Write the structure tokens for this entry.
Amino acid sequence: MDILKSIAFYNKLIFWILIGLYIPFKSAGQSPQTNSKGLKDIYQSYFTMGVAVSVSSLKGEEAQLIKREFASITPENAMKMGPIHPEENRYHWKDADSIVSFAQRNGLKVRGHALCWHEQTPAWLFKDSKGNQVSKEVLLSRLRSHIFTVMQRYKGKVYAWDVVNEAIDDHPGAYLRNSLWYQICGEDFITKAFEYAHEADPDALLFYNDYNTERPEKVERICRLIKNLKDKNVPIYGIGLQAHWSIFEPSTAELENAIKKYAALGLKIQITELDISVYPWEKEKRALRPGEPDAYTSALEKQQINKYKEVFQVLRAHRKEITGVTFWNISDRHSWLDEYPVQGRKNYPLLFDQQLKRKKAFYAITKF
């Protein structure tokens, strides 16, 4: 009997020893996709990590990825003036409401995008009942009404807004974009937009948002605009660097220079629409040319990894100036760059692949 008890005892001992060896072995072999911290956790002491979303991405595996990896979301299109205010006396709240509700249910912050932009502005805004162009007074009144209606609906739920988007002209020799906003109101539409936004929600953080904000000549023009606003005591909190970058730009020196110049104006900085294309930046739409590269090769992947690593080294070094980083789209499954500017060409600009798995670039920016 004692022999049987001894055998049972040693069998149990061996069993628990094997279990003890198996558990860490199994854990070590688990996919990092499920076993490591999300971006939001890794960068918690640096800046808020966010992503642009649509209503369709708030369910299934994309929703799970959002909740695991990010702490903030931005409506990609749902809060732009055209989609949310298509007619003078009609607002379309459904999509924006759904996104804000998702954020609240899951403890996510929301960045509002965008209150005033020359694109996706409904045509009715600039015309009277007879189809004639409205006066400056009428247009500013409509802008105020729009900003108040939208911001007060989401007051306390949206912590920051891109108030004015892309007001600087694309051409180095020009200053402000010759949009209908500018043609009718001059520079006042920018000033008033920020004043209205602050009046509508004094607690919201207000940003000027633009692209190519690291190119030296554009840095100077943006700084000119910001100085003009600050000289007039316009309530502006920070600047959004869209960060639609590529494996070719910006250089470390250009990014460093831009951050320092904007910070010197007393602004906080957020990276608002980050993606790193594997193709050079272009503005005008065109068709894919015969023989033109259209594949995510190992060489392009390596360049992208290096650029992501380089960019985030700079961003981490400026954690005191940078308060948020938002990626523009969730994964390579869908990116606005898939059809822009080259129609029919797939792009691979994000940290997650078409199966929503972490790419090598993800690990390049999270191992530091």
Summary: The longest strand covers residues 268-277. The radius of gyration is 24 Å. The longest helix spans residues 2-29.
